[in-house]
Design a protein that fits this description.
This protein starts with a strand and ends with a strand. The relative contact order is 0.11. A hairpin with a 5-residue loop joins strand 14 and strand 15. It has 16 helices and 15 strands. Helices cover 44% and strands 15% of the residues. With 478 residues, it is an alpha/beta fold. The strands form 5 sheets. Strands 4-3-9-10 form a 4-stranded parallel beta sheet, sandwiched between helices. The protein has 3 domains: 266 residues, Rossmann fold; 144 residues, Isoleucyl-tRNA Synthetase, Domain 1, CATH 1.10.730; 53 residues, no CATH class. Helix 4 packs across helix 7 and helix 11 runs antiparallel to helix 12. The structure holds adenosine monophosphate and zinc ion. The site of adenosine monophosphate has 15 residues, from helix 1 and strand 9.
């Protein structure tokens, strides 16, 4: 199957051809672990999870390496550690902050149904690789040492600015550049800087005597190199990372390895806003993944991770997305109706629909893939007998490619935070007892059982299957 992805570098959709189809390699910039992830951070997690699943489908589960880093050295982490644990030595406080935030992040993205990446490297475990790249850059004349800092010299790279399509002059004119005394050129950026007393520090490169710590951009070049090699297939992240972060990653990796490119394709997700406004703490519309899952802060109720995922995928990843209560409610109703159709089918016992795969292969067009799922759901409703079973399995398998409908109906209902947990086996047993009572025409008993189920918020629907045998299905009243 042909895959086509939009490449930020060339600004066009291009046919995807991995460097090595036996090992398709992608890197996505992960979180800086100092606080709960917000729902905007969930967007790249969900979008690139769908890409990972699609690549696994096309090239085979064992033939895709997905690296998403954890940035665990950063000023924001140091500030948070000093604020939250003033009594502890800074390094211990930092460890507490990064461990706690890292495990919160995992719990959140697990709830969103995201597969764990193949590797989740931590910046602090790759300091040696960072130093090695910095030494190469100094040796190649692309970096210089000044006042215990190492700076990348943007003037040494003719292609600098190609990803974000800016010339150096435009950058200087447009940016509020920090004209630090150790910079030879205003746009030069930090590869390494001295640590302040008490801060995490490591032996420095470039013959600098005092200990220091890495800049943000060099972390990703080092982790991508270690786990994916000098060049790889896809590099992803949010659109805000194009400049300066990704531009600087390219400068570092290409100059260190004498390569003309770092990744074959650069993919960036658009930004998320909330009910038409930029999400910000000052506007009071800032919402974390955890608050959506566990509290009624957004739209007055809790939402399951799968509803959040579907709501995120309704918009094409490159478009801005407006996060609204209406979209969440609609996604919830859609999932309710699809789970009613697929019931307790436990696995993808069919091939995914070709239309769904084509939509995803066309620059990850999840909006059109979801429209196709609605069409399949309509076919399930109209179908009968074996045909209906086949369509129901197709619906499930096609949704699972996007990480949707992977639970059973009973699990989905149990995971809905608004509904009292019901014991599906107990419900089935009561339905069987009621069917037996009805077969004996014991209407009093059958009504009693129906009332008992109603008290558990279980609604029964009596019907007949293709051969005319009575069948009873059930759902939870909402
Ligand atoms: P950060 O922790 O801010 O570096 O962000 C982690 C990831 O989330 C990056 O890929 C960002 O581009 C992405 N991101 C941050 N805010 C938003 C947003 N409002 N909408 C979409 N993506 C975002
Ligand atoms: Zn990065």
């Amino acid at each position: 199957m042909e895959l086509r992805f939009h490449d930020t570098m060339t600004k066009e959709k291009r046919r995807f051809q991995p460097l090595d189809p036996e090992n398709v390699r992608m890197y996505v910039c992960g979180p800086t672990v100092y606080d709960f992830a917000h729902i905007g951070n969930a967007r790249p997690v969900i979008v690139f999870d769908v890409l990972f699943r699609l690549l696994r489908h096309v090239y085979g589960d064992g033939h895709v390496t997905y690296v998403r880093n954890i940035t665990d050295v950063d000023d924001k982490i140091n500030d948070r550690a000093a604020r939250d644990y003033p009594a502890l030595p800074l390094n211990e406080a930092i460890r507490k902050v990064t461990e706690l935030t890292g495990s919160q992040f995992h719990a959140d993205v697990d709830a969103l149904g995201a597969l764990r990446p193949t590797v989740e490297p931590r910046a602090t475990e790759h300091i040696a690789e960072m130093r090695e790249i910095i030494e190469k850059l100094i040796a190649n004349g692309n970096a210089y040492v000044e006042q215990d800092h190492v700076l990348f010299s943007v003037g040494s790279m003719p292609d600098y600015g190609k990803l974000s399509r800016r010339s150096l002059d435009e950058m200087i004119a447009g940016a509020r550049v920090d004209v630090a005394p150790y910079k030879r050129d205003a746009m030069d950026f930090v590869l390494w800087k001295p640590s302040k007393a008490g801060e995490p520090s490591w032996p420095s490169p470039g013959g600098i005597e005092v200990e220091g710590r890495p800049g943000w951009h060099i972390e990703c070049s080092a982790m991508a190199w270690k786990h994916l090699g000098e060049q790889f297939d896809i590099h992803g992240g949010g659109i805000d990372l194009v400049f300066p972060h990704h531009e600087n990653e390219i400068a570092q990796s290409c100059c260190a390895f004498h390569a003309n490119r770092m990744a074959q394709v650069w993919m960036h997700n658009g930004f998320l806003q909330v009910e038409g406004d930029k999400m910000s703490k000052s506007l009071g519309n800032f919402v974390t993944i955890r608050e959506l899952l566990d509290t009624d802060k957004f739209a007055g109720r809790k939402w399951s991770g799968e509803v959040l995922r579907l709501a995120m995928l309704r918009t094409h990843y490159r478009q801005p997305i407006d996060w609204t209560a209406a979209a969440l409610e609609e996604s919830r109703k859609t999932l309710d109706s699809w789970y009613d159709l697929v019931g307790d089918e436990t696995k993808a016992a069919a091939a995914p629909d070709a239309g769904v795969l084509d939509a995803l292969g066309d620059d990850l067009n999840t909006a059109s893939a979801i429209a196709r799922l609605h069409a399949i759901a309509a076919e399930v409703r109209a179908g009968t007998g074996d045909d209906q079973v086949r369509l129901r399995r197709k619906l499930k398998a096609s949704a699972m490619i996007m990480g949707l409908l992977s639970a059973t109906k009973a699990e989905y209902i149990a995971a809905d935070p608004q509904v009292v947990a019901v014991d599906a086996a107990a419900v089935e047993a009561l339905i069987a007892a009621r069917a037996a009572a009805r077969a004996e025409k014991n209407w009093k008993e059958s009504d009693r059982i129906r009332d008992q189920l109603a008290a558990m918020k279980v609604v029964l629907k009596d019907g007949k299957d293709a051969s005319g045998t009575p069948v009873t299905t059930w759902e939870i009243a909402r």
